[in-house]
Amino acid sequence: MSTYLQRAEKIVDRINELAAISEDSSCVTRTYGTPSFVEGSKKVLTWMNEAGLQTHIDNIGNVRGKLVSKKAGAKTFVIASHIDTVVNAGKFDGPLGVIMGIDLVEHIKNTDIDFNIEIIAFSDEEGVRFHTTFLGSNVVTGNFDTVLLNKKDANGILLREVITSNGGNPNQLVQDAIPKESWLGYYEMHIEQGPVLYEKNIPAAVVTAIAGQKRIEVALAGFAGHAGTVPMDMRQDALAAAAVCILAIERFGLENKDHIVATVGKLEVNHAASNVIPGKVVFSIDLRGASATYLEQAYHTIEEICTTICKARNIGIEWNLVQETAPVLCDKNLSNLLSGSIKEAGHSVIELVSGAGHDAMAVATVSPVSMLFIRCYKGISHNPLENAEVNDIAEAIKISEAFIQNLIQQHS
Ligand code: HGY
Ligand code: MN
Ligand code: MN
Question: Each residue of 303-317: pLDDT tens digit?
């Protein structure tokens, strides 16, 4: 019988195995639907098969493994996270929750559980390739918007083409949903991606809520011109206008730092050249907040700020909300069970709100959700320095195993 530490060591080995599968040999990057993503999915499928689960890869590319209950008409409890990554990613954001989930079901000895347990490796939580997040979890919850099938990636490839080329059928996504009435609940284990647990020297915490988020694409249209001949006071410089907007967004975020965070993570200059006055730029805004009201107010205020700046500079502005997810409250009953499991494992209970988005947000539309945060090095994430210690993973497995047993008891 493996110890929690031995199980954690095996989990870290698998984390490293999966991280080695990347579309960039210099770093970890595995974005939705790419050949490296498909290769990584097959490795996860192998692990699920080794765990004796009933497995398949669904049409959008989620990898799914089910421990089927003997009870007819049993509901399903989902343990999941994502296996797609950001660019130049860490190794733990997403895969840790999936690989720990496989470990948990692999070590369940109960033979009479009154519900199914399904492990899911969601295929696109980060939304890097098509700028829309939760593609995989929205399919499983039945909330997938088929309009997105015509979204194009940076190379002009349609989402529907990626699904088809990877063996999925874009017209059958609806069949991959778990019906709303069949959900028993959801549990996601994830690194904290923040500094609290590291500062408090505590291995894990209960997540009570997940901040809402809005992703916006802003296109500024000026007038391209010769950098040597157009006088400074006769220019419509789209990049200079974007720079003023970006600093104004940062200032607004700082002035409202207790309620929101605002980030400009992408800036593209069309037809960029050092001797051309930029005629068109596109930048992203990632806006988050735990309060839906505050998030909405901040969204409209930032739009007004940017519109005013552009008007004063005779620059056109196109404001496009590409994705939004409302703030989510985690389920009280599941969170209480989880808190009890943390106490059983001998740790004090810390409750945290997640600033990062998670598939749990998509699942909350159809099911009670719960999350466990696991300490990570200095809270660093979306960065190759991202790291979780094997001892903390061992504690998280101990806590999660108690949580699942408490859940089984509650439903026996
Ligand atoms: O952006 C996020 O919050 C998550 O990592 N997708
Ligand atoms: Mn992430
Ligand atoms: Mn994540």
Answer: 999 999 999 999 999
